[in-house]
UniProtKB/TrEMBL annotation:
Domain of life assignment: Bacteria
Pfam families on file: DUF3500
Organism per entry: Terracoccus luteus
Protein name, as recorded: DUF3500 domain-containing protein
Amino acid sequence: MTDLGSRPVDDEVSARRGVAAAMADAARAWLDGLDEAQRRKAQGAAPADDATDDERRRWFYTPTDHGGLTLHEQRPRQQRGAMRLVASGLSTAGYVTVATTMGLENVLDAHEGFVTIFDRERGRDPGMYYLSVFGTPGDTGAWAWRFGGHHVSLNNLVVDGVLVSTTPCFMGADPASSPLLGGAVNRPLGRVEDLGRELMRSLDPDTAARALLRATAPSDFVTANRTRINHGDRVIPLAGIWRDARFPDDVEQGKLQALSDAIDAAAAYEEADHEAVQYTLDPRGVAGGDLHAGQRETLCLLLSTYFDRVPAGVSPMARVDDAALDGIHFAWAGPTEPGAPHYYRLQGPGLLIEWDNTQRGANHAHSVWRDPSNDFGLDVLARHRARHH
């Protein structure tokens, strides 16, 4: 059965070398343009198969400190260099989606009345996106980079000049849908949502019953921002997905806790609900092998909205053959009517994809692509260490 994780196969290595070289050029140029104080914040320890690598493996999708140097702390030319590095790890569509998501911070701020603070001067802030480089960019040894802020987390590892891991890869949108002039609608992740719903609604009643985890959706995607995914993982409340355990300001901490509690109350999940949607090593839902040709085509299109976030040649879509589709399981929670809170999961060898659009009246979307066996390139680093030490 084909493994759809982010580890390269032979015919991808050349493309992954090319992307890694572009990343290294952009990373070196960005670092060279920083002053000493900036560089201390921007550059971390080289990736390793030990505790010195713990910071690189921390990731978030909330508006918290993601670690590294923010865009706010950079001059315009430095910001351009930072975004050049970000673009080197994304397809054109992926980059446009990330840039749009960052801009949505201004829209969300207006929606909330320009009052949200959290633990900083401005809670919804398009300048609070953080870039870090770990190790020394080059074509020997291991180095990595991470870019993140509210609803964006990109994690890339290069070993001996080859891009070996691009996960976790998170993209979200809040608002998920917002008006544009002339009646148009801005939906950065619209196809990511619609194709999942289309697939679920195309199933016959018996197959849909096998795919349905729960009639109501969880409050967030299940595996959250864990470094490692484990059997039995359940939803983490919003207040638990921040770098620090609590805000220094008790009033702001109280607001966050109240928001977190309200989100959980809206989901109304009890023990049986959490058990039904928790992550399991054996995939739940309906297997791709049980889908007819049209449904398999929809499944392929849905996969492409995740895999094609990265540059051509790096995307695992080339490995999506009949055998791969047979082993991918699709599961759903919640109603299938547009506008209702819902969740879906795709799971197979080397693959976990989760989507949810449940919060803020189902207008707040999360999507994540992970490789449970190789997120952050951990197994590649272990093999690299074994060879060289």
